[in-house]
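Posting here for the record, re: S-adenosylmethionine.
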Amino acid sequence: MKQEVKLLIDKLYKTQELTKEEWVKVIKERDEESAEYIFSLAQPLAQKHFGNQIYTRGLIEFTNICRNDCLYCGIRKSNTNVDRYRLTLEQILECCKEGYKLGFRTFVLQGGEDAGFSKEKLAQIISTIKKEYPDAAITLSFGEWAYEDYKLWKEAGADRYLLRHETASEEHYKKLHPSDLSLSNRMRCLQDLKSLGYQVGTGFMVGSPFQTEEELATDFLFLKEFKPEMIGIGPFIPHHQTPFRDKEAGSLELTVYCLGLLRLMLPDVLLPATTALGTISPMGREQGIKAGANVIMPNLSPLSLRKKYTLYDNKIGTSDESKKNVEVLKEKMKAIGYELAVSRGDYKKMEE
Ligand code: SAM
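Prediction output follows.
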């Protein structure tokens, strides 16, 4: 490893901060040794805070109908091959029931931006889940809406919201999205969510088309300033029915490198080893944990519909019942010295 890179990693570990130029350097000039060095600092940092517990969130993909046309996403509205569905309240409750039995104490309702879903209906779903499972947290991951909508859902009982910023560079944002979507509205949403008291998760795809090291540096600077409770990053993976079908996928190597850097920058942040990471490599999620990740989000959606929520090709976890997937995951975690936590897994500030 270059001495300069080592010094930057030491600086990040000590001060939790780098300048833009330093971020670019630490990413551009990385090698196997610098990665190993980062992981040797990041994994103990995660263990100091979370022990050997991996927080879990049960993912319920409640609608694949979307009004947006993000160029990377398999469920974009222009993809006419998608068989669209929307879960009923009863189907969602069934997923929660199964999830609760399996030990989940957070339910993530994720969906395309389904404008046909009434705001009130979603509020009713949230309050019904809360009534049935008062000890569980509810996370929404439902895209960009007005302040008033976010407020309604918060009052109905939603605790957290995941909304990846996707890229903090205006220029890059435009290359990934159609012209009716803007980084400024994405940022407005994130600010609204924070001001309403949600625990907020944001993040980006690693290796998305046109991404440069400078853009990644901008992502790190933005995340440092915004201080989300959670950061979701995963490799970009092409979907064969999108305009990015021929683009290269993000790499496991760069994704885990970024996870390690994020853990050093924000030692107490919640950091998932994502499904996309598990999709590009069979041991991807384990490697993510060794790089400092501490959260896993298995799928609780009805098995018969899972293949219809295909954001990218070859997504894992779509063939087996939730119970089987959780059993396999428990074994995988045990093999690397961890266990799945049965708790809400809230964000907690790290004691100095
Ligand atoms: N509609 C909501 C939103 O925009 O936040 C939530 C659902 S959206 C499908 C969830 C995330 O999937 C996005 O934030 C994006 O980062 C990720 N995603 C979409 N297409 C992907 C792809 N081809 N490869 C990797 N991740 C992808």
